[in-house]
Amino acid sequence: MSTSNKIPRVGFVSLGCPKATVDSERILTRLRTEGYLISPSYEDSDLVVVNTCGFIDSAIAESLDAIGEALTENGKVIVTGCLGAKGNIVKQTHPKVLAVTGPQAANEVMDAIHAHLPKLHDPYVDLVPPQGIKLTPKHYAYVKISEGCNHRCTFCIIPSMRGNLVSRPISDVMQEAQNLVDAGVKELLVISQDTSAYGVDLKYRTGFWKGEFIKSRITELAQALGELGVWVRLHYVYPYPHVDELIPLMAAGKITPYLDIPFQHANARILKLMKRPANSEDVLSRIQQWRAICPELTLRSTFIVGFPGETEQEFDELLEFLKIAQLDRVGAFMYSPVEGAAANDLPNHIAPELQQERLARLMAIQAEISAQRLAQKIGKTLEVLVDDVDELGAIARSHADAPEIDGLVYVQNGQSLQQGDKVLVRVTHADEHDLWAEIV
Ligand code: SF4
After folding, report:
1. What is the pLDDT of residues 273-303, one digit of tens each?
2. Which of 38-42, 219-223, 423-427 shows the lowest per-residue confidence on average (mean pLDDT)?
3. Which of 376, 395, 421 is the last residue of a domain?
4. Most buried by CB count within 10 Å: which residue of 40, 181, 212, 392?
């Protein structure tokens, strides 16, 4: 916050192509929104931003000259744009520049401006914390990386409501994640309609974050989020082949070894009717490989029971799949016709009583599997994140437990812990949902 009441003034030199101009416009818009004035002269400016071009030699020379001129005439200079991404050339030629970023780095430019020329206090805007207003507890937060979906699953109307996939620029996602971590968040829950498709619509365009180029693609995004030093949990991961790339990141402890991957069914004909990837053998062998690479992996999936035309044999195939797959967490739902969904037109809808009966059978089998898998954790040491504390102890979650949907870890001697603490516990008891444990 500025201590003087003088409105801070920024000079702006914009060089380069139309893409650079758009970057300049974005920065100028942010400056004006935050109450800075844009000044047309060096003498009147408190600081100058030079947006550079680094395409050909003459453009590099022009950019370096412009930086030199701004340094001579003003002295406080921040450099952005393509030349900033070309190694150390700017710092080597002009060591006095205050900061250098690459293109499409409005957030980083604004951070540098805030550091060297603080904005005036705005009683309206400054009430909003940098991480925005969050409805979740302070120690975890959802990060939405895209909107919409390119798939057309026949039971779903999301694409008709929200349109095709639109991914957020990777630098925006990373800045939001960084703000959340700076504000004390210990767990980031990555969400979207289709997390593994992140960046497809952007053709995996390269963005800029913390001085480095980074592809807008789920593997690279997960890797970058993993550098923030908090739990990173991936939800709604459609089973594309490239999901396999995420497992080594989990094995290496970069991101949380947890995959929320909706398979929806196991029978090839039903999956085809659903317009989902239809090869359960392939899924089973992938699960096996994932577990070989990352034995700690927790798999959560969802399934639809009683889809139109589902025969007894096809349903049995789903049960058989569950027995072999040994998933950790399963959510199952009876098919219900949503207005506007293509599946409504399919023949042979299943009677609700039969759907109910199949759902109960599936859940009974899965309850046994879940209980067995949790029982295997007794005696093991786990890291947990504390959600709440009362006189009975702490209520926490392990890597295997997403908030709201999975189980809990009751830390029986955790009365002295606080919300947001991460602590090692030893598991003493388990049921089909939850664990009980003691601080190690
Ligand atoms: S179920 Fe998911 S993947 Fe399929 S269309 Fe709906 S949002 Fe997209």
Report:
1. 999 987 777 999 999 999 999 999 999 999 9
2. 38-42
3. 376
4. 181
**Consecutive H or E run containing 372:** helix 352-375
The range of the structural domain enclosing residue 406 comes to: 380-439
Q: Is residue 134 part of a domain?
A: no
| pLDDT value for 1 | 38
- Ligand 1 centre and the CA of 148: distance in Å? 9
Give the pair of three-digit tokens for residue 86.
Answer: 């070309």
Question: Cβ(193) to ligand 1 under 6 A?
Answer: yes
Annotated binding-site ranges for [4Fe-4S] cluster:
17, 53, 82, 149, 153, 156
31: its two tokens: 């400056």
Q: How far apart (Å, rounded) are the C-alpha atoms in residues 59 and 65?
A: 10
CA of residue 192 to ligand 1 center, whole Å: 10
3-state secondary structure of 394: strand
pTM of the model: 0.77
| Ligand 1 closest atom vs CA 157 | 6
C-beta separation of 216 from 169 below 8 A: yes
- 94-136 per-position pLDDT tens digit: 999 999 988 778 888 998 999 999 887 776 666 666 666 667 8
Query: Cβ(158) to ligand 1 under 6 A?
Result: yes
CA of 236, closest atom in ligand 1: 2
Q: What is the per-residue pLDDT for 170?
A: 95
d(CA 104, CA 209): 9
In this structure, are 94 and 243 located in the same domain? Answer: no
